C-alpha cells in the first residue's frame, strides 16, 4: 500500500525532514504521527476502505498530512483544485459520493448539502469560532484541524482485508461533455509507477525533491510517494513562484533541489525568462518532465545552460500513470523532429495498432495501447466509457487505448505524433475542446461554438473560442468567459472569445479548424 | 482617452490597470470583487502565462519597458503593487526624456 513508503521511512529515518512548506518543516516522525491522527479522525467517522475523501486544499503541509491520513484510513483521496468553480467542486463531491472532505472554512456552506458527506474537516478554522453550531440532523459533522490533532498519534488498526487493487486516488480530468471524469488509480498502479520512477530518478535519502505540480495533477504522485520511499525531503513549491520564473530559479538554487519534476512549459519559462546562468545549481542531478511536448529549441537551451543534470521525458496519460520514458541524449538535441517518448517502462507493455486494427510494423503509425500494472481501474461511475478504452486489443487481452497517435522509429523509440480526437494540452493540462464548446452552448445566447488552440513554442498552446450568437443577443465576450469560468477550471477558460457571423465549415460540414486558426491568429 | 499623453495621474494609472485586469483576468466569483491589496497571485487571478500578457499590456499601454528582473512578486503582488511599479517607471521615463 502506498502509505507504507511513509511508514518505512518514518521507522528507518524518523528525524529526517519529510516536508518543507515555506518556513515550516516536518520530520518523518512528525508526518507519520500527524497522518495517523488524520486516519483516526476519519475512522472515527466510520470512513475507511471503499470510501473516498476529498482533498480540497492548496498544496501545504496539511494537504500532505491529509493525503497520507486518508490512505491510512483505507480510503482513496480525491484531490480537487481549490481554484475550481463551485459547480465543479459540487459535481465532483456528488459524482464520487465523497464520505469526507478536507477543506477550508470558505467552502463549508457549499459542501454541507452534499448528501454522502459524513464529515467536513476544516483547516485554518479556529476551534472557538462559530463552527460549533448545533449539529443538524443528517448534516455532516464539522471538525477542525485542532480536533484532528487531538487524536492519538498511534498507528490505526490495519485493515483486515486490504488489497493492492483498492483505490488509492481518483483524479478528475476534462471529459468531452463538459462534465469531468474521474480516473481511478489503485495502490497497485501507483506502486508500479513509483517503484520504477524512484530508481530511474535516483532518489537518495536526504535529497530535496520538488513538489511543483498541484495534487490534482498526476505528476504529484511521483513527488509525494517517490520522495517518501527514498526518505528524501519534499519541498513544496509555492504556486505563486510559477508566475515568476526568476524567483522560481532562485528557489531551486537556494532550496538545493536535487530532483525537479514539472511540465515542460515551466522549464521553458525558466530557460527563457529565469536568467538561469545566475546560479550554478550544484545540487540539481535529475530533471524530469511530462505532460506535453517539450519544444526542442528550449530544451536545447536548457541543456546548454545546465549541462550537469540528467533530463528525462516521461510519458503517459493519467489513465496509465507513466508508461514510457526517454533519457535525453546529446543526439536528441540535434534532431529536427520532437523528442521521442521513448521506451516502455514500469513493467508495462506497449502496442501500436494501425487504423485498420492490425499491429503496426516498424515505421508505421498507429494508436498507442498500453497493458500492464500501471493501468487505471476505470472511470468512476462510467462503465460504458471505461469499456470503450479498456479491453482486448490485437496482441493483448486487456489494454488501454490512449487515443495518442505514435510511430516507432527505426531505433525502437516511440514518437508522439498527435491525437486521434480533439483533446489538446495547455501547459500540461488536458482539455477536450468539445467540453469547452459544450459549456459555451449552455449559454442561452450562443447558437454555435468552436474551441481551438493556437500553438506557441514559448508560451505553450493558447486556448481560444469562436461563437455564433443568436439574433438580438446582447452577451459580451467577457460575459461568455465568465460563464465558462462558472463551470470550468481556469485553464479551460479561453483567453479570448470572439463572436462571428458563421463558423467556417469544411465541404463535409465539419468545423474547419485550419480556417478557425487563421481567423484566431488575426485577432490579437 | 489619453494614449498619446506622456504623463498620467496616479488615479488614471490605477483605473487603466484595474480595468484591464478586470477584463482580462478576473472572473468574479459570487462573493467578491478584488481589493487593491488582494494578492493577485495567491488568488490565482494571474498565472504563469497571464503575467506575460500583463507585462505586454503595461509596456504597450504606458510605453514603458519591463525587463526580466522587474518581473518579480514585489512588483506584481497586487493592484497596488502594479500601480506603484508602473508609476515609478513612468516617472523614470519622464526623467530620461527631460534630461
Automatic annotation (TrEMBL), chain A:
<dbReference type="InterPro" id="IPR000873">
    <property type="entry name" value="AMP-dep_synth/lig_dom"/>
</dbReference>
<dbReference type="InterPro" id="IPR010071">
    <property type="entry name" value="AA_adenyl_dom"/>
</dbReference>
<keyword id="KW-0436">Ligase</keyword>
<protein>
    <submittedName>
        <fullName>D-alanine--poly(Phosphoribitol) ligase</fullName>
    </submittedName>
</protein>
<feature type="domain" description="AMP-binding enzyme C-terminal">
    <location>
        <begin position="436"/>
        <end position="510"/>
    </location>
</feature>
<dbReference type="GO" id="GO:0043041">
    <property type="term" value="P:amino acid activation for nonribosomal peptide biosynthetic process"/>
</dbReference>
<feature type="domain" description="AMP-dependent synthetase/ligase">
    <location>
        <begin position="6"/>
        <end position="380"/>
    </location>
</feature>
<dbReference type="GO" id="GO:0016874">
    <property type="term" value="F:ligase activity"/>
</dbReference>
<dbReference type="InterPro" id="IPR020845">
    <property type="entry name" value="AMP-binding_CS"/>
</dbReference>
<dbReference type="Pfam" id="PF00501">
    <property type="entry name" value="AMP-binding"/>
</dbReference>
<dbReference type="InterPro" id="IPR042099">
    <property type="entry name" value="ANL_N_sf"/>
</dbReference>
<dbReference type="GO" id="GO:0044550">
    <property type="term" value="P:secondary metabolite biosynthetic process"/>
</dbReference>
<dbReference type="GO" id="GO:0031177">
    <property type="term" value="F:phosphopantetheine binding"/>
</dbReference>
<dbReference type="InterPro" id="IPR045851">
    <property type="entry name" value="AMP-bd_C_sf"/>
</dbReference>
<dbReference type="InterPro" id="IPR020459">
    <property type="entry name" value="AMP-binding"/>
</dbReference>
<dbReference type="GO" id="GO:0005737">
    <property type="term" value="C:cytoplasm"/>
</dbReference>
<dbReference type="InterPro" id="IPR025110">
    <property type="entry name" value="AMP-bd_C"/>
</dbReference>
<dbReference type="Pfam" id="PF13193">
    <property type="entry name" value="AMP-binding_C"/>
</dbReference>
TrEMBL record, chain B:
<protein>
    <submittedName>
        <fullName>Acyl carrier protein</fullName>
    </submittedName>
</protein>
<feature type="domain" description="Carrier">
    <location>
        <begin position="8"/>
        <end position="90"/>
    </location>
</feature>
<dbReference type="InterPro" id="IPR009081">
    <property type="entry name" value="PP-bd_ACP"/>
</dbReference>
<dbReference type="InterPro" id="IPR036736">
    <property type="entry name" value="ACP-like_sf"/>
</dbReference>
<dbReference type="Pfam" id="PF00550">
    <property type="entry name" value="PP-binding"/>
</dbReference>
Amino acid at each position: 500500500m502506498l502509505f507504507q513508503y511513509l511508514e518505512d521511512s518514518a521507522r528507518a529515518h524518523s528525524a529526517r525532514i519529510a516536508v518543507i512548506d515555506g518556513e515550516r518543516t516536518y520530520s518523518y516522525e512528525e508526518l507519520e504521527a500527524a497522518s495517523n491522527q488524520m486516519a483516526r479522525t476519519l475512522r472515527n467517522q466510520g470512513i475507511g476502505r471503499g470510501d473516498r475523501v476529498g482533498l480540497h486544499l492548496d498544496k501545504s503541509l496539511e494537504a500532505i498530512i491529509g493525503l497520507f491520513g486518508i490512505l491510512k484510513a483505507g480510503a482513496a483521496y480525491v484531490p480537487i483544485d481549490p481554484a475550481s468553480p463551485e459547480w465543479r467542486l459540487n459535481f465532483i463531491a456528488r459524482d464520487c459520493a465523497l464520505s469526507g472532505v478536507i477543506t477550508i472554512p470558505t467552502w463549508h456552506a457549499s459542501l454541507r448539502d452534499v448528501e454522502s458527506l459524513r464529515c467536513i474537516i476544516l483547516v485554518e478554522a479556529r476551534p472557538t469560532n462559530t463552527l460549533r453550531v448545533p449539529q443538524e440532523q443528517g448534516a455532516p459533522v464539522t471538525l477542525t484541524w485542532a480536533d484532528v490533532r487531538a487524536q492519538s498519534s498511534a498507528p490505526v488498526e490495519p485493515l483486515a482485508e486490504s488489497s493492492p487493487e483498492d483505490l488509492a486516488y481518483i483524479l478528475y480530468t476534462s471529459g468531452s461533455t463538459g462534465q469531468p471524469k474521474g480516473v481511478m488509480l489503485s495502490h497497485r498502479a501507483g506502486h508500479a509507477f513509483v517503484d520504477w520512477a524512484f530508481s530511474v530518478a535516483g532518489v537518495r535519502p536526504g535529497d530535496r525533491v520538488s513538489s511543483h505540480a498541484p495534487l490534482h495533477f498526476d505528476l504529484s504522485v511521483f513527488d509525494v510517494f517517490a520522495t517518501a520511499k527514498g526518505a528524501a525531503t519534499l519541498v513544496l513549491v509555492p504556486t505563486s513562484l510559477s508566475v515568476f520564473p526568476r524567483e522560481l530559479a532562485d528557489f531551486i538554487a537556494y532550496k538545493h533541489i536535487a530532483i525537479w519534476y514539472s511540465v515542460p512549459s515551466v522549464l521553458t519559462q525558466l530557460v527563457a525568462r529565469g536568467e538561469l546562468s545566475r546560479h550554478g545549481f550544484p545540487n540539481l542531478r535529475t530533471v524530469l518532465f511530462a505532460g506535453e511536448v517539450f519544444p526542442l529549441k528550449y530544451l536545447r537551451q536548457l541543456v546548454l545552460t545546465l549541462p550537469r543534470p540528467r533530463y528525462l521525458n516521461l510519458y503517459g496519460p493519467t489513465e496509465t500513470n507513466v508508461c514510457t520514458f526517454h533519457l535525453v541524449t546529446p543526439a536528441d538535441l540535434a534532431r529536427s523532429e520532437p523528442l521521442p517518448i521513448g521506451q516502455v517502462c514500469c513493467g508495462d507493455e506497449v502496442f501500436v495498432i494501425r487504423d485498420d486494427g492490425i499491429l503496426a510494423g516498424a515505421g508505421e503509425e498507429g494508436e498507442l495501447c498500453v497493458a500492464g500494472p500501471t493501468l487505471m481501474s476505470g472511470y468512476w461511475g462510467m462503465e460504458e466509457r471505461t469499456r470503450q478504452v479498456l479491453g482486448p486489443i490485437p496482441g493483448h487481452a486487456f489494454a488501454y487505448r490512449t487515443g495518442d497517435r505514435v510511430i516507432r522509429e527505426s531505433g525502437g523509440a516511440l514518437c508522439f505524433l498527435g491525437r486521434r480526437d480533439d483533446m489538446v494540452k495547455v501547459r500540461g493540462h488536458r482539455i477536450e475542446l468539445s467540453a469547452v464548446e459544450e459549456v459555451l452552448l449552455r449559454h442561452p445566447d450562443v447558437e454555435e461554438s468552436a474551441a481551438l488552440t493556437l500553438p506557441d513554442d514559448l508560451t505553450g498552446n493558447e486556448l481560444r473560442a469562436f461563437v455564433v450568437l443568436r439574433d438580438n443577443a446582447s452577451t459580451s465576450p467577457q460575459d461568455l468567459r465568465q460563464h465558462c469560468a462558472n463551470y470550468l477550471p481556469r485553464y479551460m477558460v479561453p483567453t479570448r472569445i470572439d463572436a462571428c457571423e458563421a463558423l467556417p465549415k469544411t465541404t463535409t460540414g465539419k468545423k474547419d479548424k485550419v480556417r478557425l486558426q487563421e481567423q484566431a491568429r488575426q485577432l490579437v | 482617452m489619453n494614449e498619446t499623453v506622456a504623463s498620467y495621474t496616479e488615479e488614471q494609472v490605477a483605473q487603466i490597470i484595474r480595468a484591464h485586469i478586470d477584463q482580462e483576468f478576473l472572473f468574479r466569483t459570487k462573493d467578491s470583487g478584488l481589493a487593491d491589496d488582494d494578492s493577485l497571485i495567491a488568488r490565482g487571478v494571474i498565472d504563469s502565462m497571464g503575467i506575460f500578457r500583463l507585462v505586454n499590456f503595461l509596456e504597450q499601454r504606458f510605453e514603458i519597458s519591463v525587463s526580466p528582473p522587474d518581473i518579480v512578486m514585489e512588483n506584481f503582488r497586487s493592484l497596488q503593487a502594479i500601480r506603484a511599479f508602473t508609476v515609478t517607471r513612468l516617472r523614470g521615463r519622464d526623467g530620461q526624456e527631460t534630461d
